[in-house]
Amino acid sequence: MSGFSTARQKMVDGQVRTNDVTDRRVLDAMLTVPREAFVPAGRQALAYLDLDLDVSEGTAKRFLIKPALTGKLLQAAEIGEGDNVLVVGCATGYLAALAAKLARQVTATECDSALAAKAGDAFTAQGLANVACKAAACTDGDPAAAPYDVIVLNGAAEVLPEALLGQLKDGGRLVGVSAESRPPRAMIVTRTHGEFGHRALFDAAAPVLPGLERAAAFVF
In this predicted model, what pLDDT tens digit does every residue of 35-76 receive, in sequence order? Predict the structure, then answer.
């Protein structure tokens, strides 16, 4: 086993399984997809650590969220083999690559166009033909490929992403971290007959996605 293969196994055994991720398909995807392939060369030694990994190369900070939270969100999303999935704010595409192992089709969006291009290159290098990345604001989603069975946020939202909810099909669900209140929590929002049901899953923290920040309060 290479050093990265060993680190990947340790990540799954020590960070993911121990956080109640039991879904065999999610665990298999995390054992198969090389996280280091989505990390800038100079930071690959950090690829399997228990942290939100900064992969940005521009001015805005962009992250791959912690492995354990990645696994828990994917497990909560219950992605089926026939599902059409949107991953929002994918950064360099790691979470989207995992989703591509679980779903029929994945659309990923990233607001940093340079990172979106890197994600696309990484998907090609990994031979993932059922996932594409588009440069788009996190608030916009991708109406062209909607409606989605599942939408996953690669990060937190301090405001309700209304436009994204509108791209869910009936029976569809959005999972991500809600930082609207304290403490922040992973949430699942389910669309049923045009109504949206919100359910808290577990306490979780993640970097807030660009464009989904709370508006700054006006101060005299």
Answer: 999 999 999 999 999 999 999 987 789 999 999 999 999 999
Contact in structure between 201 and 152 (CB atoms under 8 Å): no
Count other Cβ atoms within 10 Å, centred on residue 78: 16
Model confidence pTM above 0.90: yes
Beta-bridge partner residues of 152: 87, 175
d(C-alpha 85, C-alpha 132), whole Å? 11
Q: What is the pLDDT of residue 89?
A: 97
Q: Do residues 156 and 44 touch, judged by C-beta distance below 8 A?
A: no
pLDDT in tens, 93-152: 999 999 999 999 999 999 999 999 999 999 999 999 999 999 999 999 999 999 999 999
What band does 77 get if pLDDT is binned at 50, 70 and 90? very high
Amino acid at 40: P
Q: For the chain, how big is the Rg over CA atoms in Å?
A: 16
Q: 3-class SS at 169?
A: strand
Q: Nearest Cα to 85, choosing from 70, 102, 116, 107? A: 107
Cβ-proximal residues to 71 (8 Å cutoff; 6+ apart), any chain = 16, 19, 21, 26, 27, 30
SS3 label, residue 22: coil
